[in-house]
Amino acid sequence: MNPIQWFVDFYNRYIPGFTDDILWGQHTFIILLAVGFLFTVWSKFIQYRALTHGVSVIRGKYDDKRDPGAINHFQALSAALSATVGLGNIGGVAVAVAVGGPGAVFWMWVVGFLGMAIKSVEVTLAMIYRDTSDPDNPHGGAMWVIKRGFGDKVGGIAKPFAWLVGAIFCVTLLISTMTGGNMFQVWNVARITNEYFAVDPRVTGIVLAVLTAMVIIGGIKRIGAVAGRLVPLMCGLYIVGGIVVLVVKAANVPDLLLFIIQDAFNPQEAAGAFMGATAWFGLTTGLRRALFSNEAGQGSSPIAHSAAKTDEPVREGVVAGLEPFIDTCLVCTLTALVILSTNTWNREKVGDFNGQIAIVQTMNDAGETVARVEASTAFESLPKLAPPAGWYRGNRFFLLAEAPEANSNTGSTRVRIGGRLVEIDEDADGNGVKDLVIVWDAPQVGSVLIDKGVYQDLVGAPLTGHAFDRAIPGLGKYLVTAVCWLFAFSTMISWSYYGEQGVVFLFGKAIAPFTVLIYKLVFCALAIVASWPGFLETDAQLGLLADLGTGVMLLANVPIIVLMGYQSMRAFNDYFGRMARGEMEPPHKAPPIAKVIEGEDVE
After folding, report:
1. Do 298 and 176 contact (CB within 8 A), yes or no?
2. What is the pLDDT of residues 399-456, one digit of tens each?
3. In angstroms, what CA-CA distances link 82 with 85, 177, 225, 231, 327?
4. Does a structural domain hold residue 154?
5. Do 499 and 525 belong to one domain?
6. Second label for 380, Cα 20 to 30 Å away, from 104, 481, 497, 568?
7. Which residues form the domain of 285?
8. Domain total in the chain
9. CA–CA separation, 196 vs 188, rounded Å?
C-alpha cells in the first residue's frame, strides 16, 4: 500500500468517532456559547468598539513606524482575514445549508456576533504577552500567553507546566493547519475545478502546493504584503458577484433573512436534494461551520495579529473583532442568500436514470446480509447535463431511497444512494462518450429506491458554484472557481505561517531554520494528498475534516483564554478609560488608502 493510500485509510477509519464523540459532543456547544456570552457581557459589548474604533485603527490613524512589529494594522487584519475568509465561506456555508438547512445560518450569525468578543479577548491577550525581542519578527499566540503570562511570572514548577500546555496547543495548531487550513482548501478547489473543467484533482493539488511554497518562503512580511492586496480583491469580486445574483433573481433579502430565522426553530422537511434536518442538527451544524470559518476561540488569528506594529494591545484586539463580522455576518451570509434565492439547497433532479437499477440484498463471505446497487452502466442511463456543466471522471451523483429507520440528524427516512464516475470511455472516432464505470455507495440494508431521479452530488464549493450558475449560466464556472482559487491560496499562506510559529515554539529558535523548512515541505506535500482521488467523497467527510482541526484547537485554547481573560478586561478598561479622558487622540490623519495597503510607514 502506498503512503498516501495508507493515510487515507487511517483517516477514514479512526478519525470520525474521535471527532464526533469527543471533540464535538453536546458539551462543546454549551461551553462555546457560554464563553462567547461571558466575554460579550464582561467586555461591555466590545463588538461596538470593534465596529467603530476598530475601523479608525485599520485606516492608519494610529500607525506609528516606531512601534514594535512587522506589518501595519490593516495588513495584520488582512493576513488574519486571508486565513478566515477562505473556502469555509464558500464550501463550508454550502455544507451547512445542504445538511443543516437554512436555519444553520442563523446559528452562524450567533457565533459571528459572540465570536467578535472572543476574538478581541484572545488577540488582546496575545498582544500583551507576545515576544518582541526581535521587533521585526515578533512571535505571539496562546502558547506565548501561557508561557510568559503564567510560567515566567509564577516560576518554579509552573514554567515546565506552562511550556507543556503551550506545546499541546502548538500540536493542535499543527493539526488544524494541515487539515482545515490546508487540505480542506485544496479539496474544495480540486473538486470545483474538476466539476467545471475536468482537470485532474492531483494537478490542482500540485499547482496550489507550488504557489504556496513560493510565498511562504518569504515569511510574514511577504505573506502580509500578498494578503493586503489579495483580500480586498477576492472579497470584492465575490461580494459583487453575489449581489448581481440577488438582483438577477429579484431576491427579497428581508424575506430570506426571516426564512433563515424561522427555519432555525421550525425546520423544513426533506424536499428535492435536501434530506431534512432537526432543529438541534441545524444548530450544531451552523456552530461548527461558523467556528471553522471565523476561527473564534481557536487561537489561530492572534498569531497573525501579533505581528502588528503597535504598543497598545487593545488597539489590535478591537481590530481583530472585525474578523468574525466580515467573515460570518457579511461573506458567509452572502453565500447563504445566493444558495437559498436560487433554490440550490433543495434543487430538483437533473433527469431520470434510464437504465435498469435496483437495490438488492445478498450475503457476503462472512454470512452477513448486505445490500448493493445493481444497475446498467451505459452512458445513456444518465441524463445529459445542460451547459456549462457536464459529466466528468470523478463526478458524483445520487438517487433517493427510503431507509427502514429515520435518521436522528435529519428526522427523515430519506437517504442518498450515491455513485461516482471512475472511468469514461470515448468512442473510437472521438465523437463522444459511449460507456462509463460507476462505483456505487453501499446502501443500508432494507433501503428501497424512491424513483430513478438523478441529482448532482454537489458538495462544498461546487454547490455554491452551481447556485451562481442557476442565476447566470457560467458565473459559477468562472467567477466562483476563480474566487475559490484565491480564497484557498490566501488561506493556505496564512495558515502556513500559523503552523510555522507553532514549530518555532516547539523546537526553539536555534534550529528554527531547519525545522521550519521540514514543516513547509510537509505542508505542501499534504496539499497534494488532499487532492488524491478517494480521500474525501461526501459532504459529511468534508465537514469532518474541518471539524477535526477546529475541535482540537478549541479544546486547547478555550481554557487558556477563560483563565486569563481577566487580563484582557483590565486592559480594555484602562485603554477605553484613557480614550474617554481624551488621552488617545489619533496622532495624525488617516493616510491615503494606497499607503495603508502597501504598508508604508506613516510619519
Report:
1. yes
2. 999 988 888 888 888 888 888 887 766 554 444 555 678 888 888 888 889 989 899 8
3. 5, 14, 11, 6, 10
4. yes
5. yes
6. 481
7. 65-344+471-592
8. 2
9. 12
